[in-house]
Design goal:
Distance between the termini: 31 Å
Shape: globular
Largest sheet: 4 strands, parallel
CATH superfamily: Ribosomal protein L4/L1
Strand order of the largest sheet: 1-4-2-3
CATH architecture: 3-Layer(aba) Sandwich
Number of strands: 4
Order of helices and strands: HEHEHEHEH
CATH topology: Ribosomal Protein L4, Chain: A
Number of helices: 5
Length: 119
């Protein structure tokens, strides 16, 4: 998993957002936002907790867009996705789980590193 995530980072295909909460329940608005970000093909959203219901509904109606909880994430999903979008909680979970350093505490993420999904 570390190798797959590192490859996505090297390819600049890994994005971190503060949260995956989506304000609108309409798929059309979500699709427009994905088009604006160029995230409209083979994008996988990874949530650090349960996948928000509005995101799950919107993703379910779009071909090539999927969402999953970080606990259900597998290497095949990471490799298959063209773009990986994680929320901060998912990044912290992955760091804790796959860090080689024992007792590792995830660093605070500067706001400029995060992508604003909602603009």
């Amino acid at each position: 998993m570390r190798v797959a995530l590192s490859a996505k980072l090297k390819e600049r295909s890994l994005c971190v957002v503060e949260t995956l909460e989506w304000d609108g329940a309409k798929t059309a608005g979500f699709s427009e936002r994905l088009d604006a970000l160029s995230w409209n093909t083979r994008t996988l959203f990874v949530s650090g907790g349960p996948v928000p219901e509005t995101l799950q509904r919107s993703c379910g109606n779009l071909q090539g867009i999927d969402c999953v909880s970080v606990e259900d994430l597998n290497v095949y999903d990471v490799v298959l996705a063209k773009r990986l979008v994680l929320d901060v909680a998912a990044v912290e979970w992955l760091e804790e789980r796959y860090s080689k350093v024992t007792g590792f505490k995830p660093a605070a993420y500067p706001l400029e590193m995060l992508v604003d999904l909602h603009l």
